[in-house]
Amino acid sequence: MRKSLAGLDNFSCDGSTAFDRLRSLYDELATYGVKPESIVHLKEDLHNGRNYLKLDYRTHVSHSSRIADHCSAFGLSDVHNAA
To answer: Which residue has the higher pLDDT, 66 or 75?
Structure first.
């Protein structure tokens, strides 16, 4: 674990570790014949996705969003708990 993540919860730390692992897997794709341009695009998309989750996603989440992925009430609900 990196020092800068020492104060974060496990969820944030695991998410960061997962993005780092994906990035290293992309580096390995070259050994399987994937074109360097494709790897660059994959890394850019991964970087953009990480930034969205870190910076923009929280501004889209609300208690009553019509988009299921942006609705905190839906996302935190339990299918086994009949309201």
So the answer is: 66
